[in-house]
Amino acid sequence: MADVGKKVLASGGVKVGQAVLGIVTTLLLARWLGAQDFGRCAFALTIGTLLSVMAQLGWPTLLTREIARSRIAGSWSRVRGVIRYSNWMVLGIGGVLACLPVLVGISMLSGPDARGGAALIACGFFVPAAAFAGLRSASLRGLERVLSGQLLDAVVRPVVFLATVLAMYAGLPLSPANVMVAQAFATVAALLVGVWILARALPADFRVTTPEYESRAWLASLGPLAFVSGAQIFSAQIDVVILGLMVDPASVGSYKIAVTIASQVAFSTWLVNAVFAPHIVKLHVDGDDEGLRRLIRKGGLYSLVVAVPGLIVIFSLGGSGIAYLLGAGYRSAYVPMLILAVGQLLAVSAGPVGLLLGMTGNEKYVARAVGASVVASAGLNVVLIHFYGVVGAAIATAAALVMMRFLLFRYARRHVRAYGGSPDAT
Asked: CA dist 411 to 27, 366, 414, Å?
């Protein structure tokens, strides 16, 4: 267990670097683009992120789980089979989904929001690259190369993106479309690095073994996993999507600043999940319920230790701090930022219960919780945005997030043996 703590600290260091890069890049873009164009860029990136997750069909979670299990069993033929099978499925779905923003963007070029349309066209190149980069990260996590997997999203992609944006700013007028092109370029760079790292991480047996496919079992698991992954990202992004459809781009830009900063409170959840996933699988396979209980308790503690200082920093920032950093036009981001940060803190206090359910074969209960959260988030956002704008979006999103984590914790208590629950309970 001592190794787990060390890995969490190492992953935390990488994640802190990613958070710093992300915040710096966001602040620079917000200043350079202005609220209107920053809002257009945020909307296009949100659509691209949603489509890339849909293209993945839940494969990242399944890849991590299946590769970890097959590696423990020494079955490299199954590892090769699941990697190849996932690649072909994502290639087909991703290619189709990438066409959607391109077609919508083309239809907008002759309208009043041509700049937003150009950003959506560029978004089409981002979708397949992001989908495949996610598969490479998941494969590395299954091989217990957690830090290597993190490097793709936490270092390579943001560094290349920031460098590209800086180069554009020096020689080209920045626009939402140019920023999306930079996102696509950085994602392709991360994908190529991920392919190289994965090739070096796999043993020689992997290259000579015949792929073994368990298509029926994988497809059976993909249904709920695809729903969960899609619903989770939809729940996380639906506020920006609805805002983009109901309010002006400047309000979307202001809200995106709130989301970007507030989400740093919960970055500990990501790093705990990344490190704990293969350990949960191993302890579950070994039937070590006591070890699994200790692991989950540590996960909740690590998450809170990191989340509380983040909330304190956001509370201290204030509206004047935001106005100083970004301009008076972004002062309205403070209240929704604080609401979202409090919601994130309440959510992480439950520990990695969603990961626990998913890694122990109880993904259908994660699907139930996430599905309920998506419905609640969509309904609350439509109503509260209509009356309260960006503040309403923050209230709706925070409430739906807390509700989802409460349901996940409740399901884990009832259905995971390590928590004292019964796997056969309904």
From this structure: 39, 8, 5
pLDDT at 13: 67
- Summarised one tens digit per residue, pLDDT across range 17-61 is 777 888 888 888 988 888 889 999 999 999 999 999 889 888 888
Residue 398 CB contacts under 8 Å (≥ 6 apart), including other chains? 339, 340, 342, 343, 344
pLDDT of residue 394: 94
CB 252 within 8 A of CB 243: yes
Q: What confidence score (pLDDT) does residue 3 get?
A: 56
Cβ pair 249, 40 in contact under 8 A: yes
CA-to-CA distance for 420 and 172, rounded, in angstroms? 60
Residues 42 and 256 sit within 8 Å (Cβ to Cβ): yes
How far does Cα 372 stand from its chain's mean position? 19
